[in-house]
C-alpha cells in the first residue's frame, strides 16, 4: 500500500532554534497533505492543510508565522517550527490525501530543551 | 464544527473477551470514518476504513460499523489478546479531506 515517510523521526533542539520536518508520499502524488500535532495523552489535532503550489490553510489558533509549511512538490511537504520553545515539544504527524483515503506518516517527536 | 467523542476513555478486560469501542460524531456529512490503533510513543496504524456509503467493514477479529444518521460507529474486537492493548482512535473525514480525531480509548487486555 501507499506509504508516507517523515524525517526525522525524532529531534532534540535548543530553545530558539528552528526545526524542519519533512513529509513524503513515497509511491503516489498528493496535492494535499495535512499536519497534525499530538501532545502526551491527547488526541491528534489538525494544525494545517498543505496544498501543492499554494499557501497552507491553518486551523484556528495555529500561528502561521511560527509553523511554516511548504508544499513545493506533489510528494513533499515540509513543516518548519521556527524559534522553537519547550511548549512546542510534541509529536507531529503528517498525512497525505489519496482518492479513497489518507495515509499517515510515522510521526516526528520533537523535544525542545 | 465536527466533534468526535469516544467512549469509554479506558477499558480493561481479561484475555479472550469480546469488546466494543464506541465513537460518535456530531456532523453526519462525512466522507469516511477510520479506526486506528496507536501504541505508546508510536504513530498510527490504520485498522479499518468505512466509506460513507458503507455500513461495516471487517478485518480478521475486527469489525467496524457505521450509522451515519445517528452519528455513531463501533469497533468490535473478538477474542481479545494482550497484543491488542493500545489506544484506539477513530477519525472522521470530511469531503474537504480534513480529519477530526476522537480522544481515543485506551485498551488493556490482561493475560
How many distinct helices of chain B?
0
N-to-C series of helices and strands of chain B: EEEEEEEEEEE
Please summarize the sheet with the most strands of chain B: 6 strands, mixed
Tally of DSSP β-strands of chain B: 11
Mean pLDDT of chain B: 94
Protein structure class of chain A: mainly beta
Residue stretches of chain A low in confidence (pLDDT < 50, at least 5 long) are none
> Could you tell me how far the N terminus lies from the C terminus of chain A, measured between alpha carbons in angstroms?
37 Å
Specify the number of helices of chain A.
0
**Poorly predicted segments of chain B:** none
Shape of chain A: globular
Largest sheet of chain A: 7 strands, mixed
Question: What class, by secondary structure content of chain B?
Answer: mainly beta
Instruction: Kindly report the average pLDDT value of chain A.
Output: 92
Intertermini distance of chain B: 41 Å
Helix content of chain B: under 10%
Task: Walk me through the structure.
The complex is a heterodimer of chains A (113) and B (111). Chain A is an all-beta fold and 113 residues long. Chain A is 0% helix and 54% strand. Chain A is built from no helices and eleven strands. Chain A has strands at 4-7, 10-13, 19-25, 32-38, 44-51, 57-58, 67-73, 76-81, 90-97, 102-104, 108-112. In chain A, the strands form two sheets. In chain A, strands 2, 4, 5, 6, 9, 10 and 11 form a seven-stranded mixed β-sheet that branches. In chain A, strands 1-3-8-7 form a four-stranded antiparallel β-sheet, with no helix packed on it. Chain A is globular. The relative contact order of chain A is 0.34. Chain B is mainly β and 111 residues long. In chain B, a hairpin with a 5-residue loop joins strand 4 (32-38) and strand 5 (44-51). Chain B starts with a strand and ends with a strand.
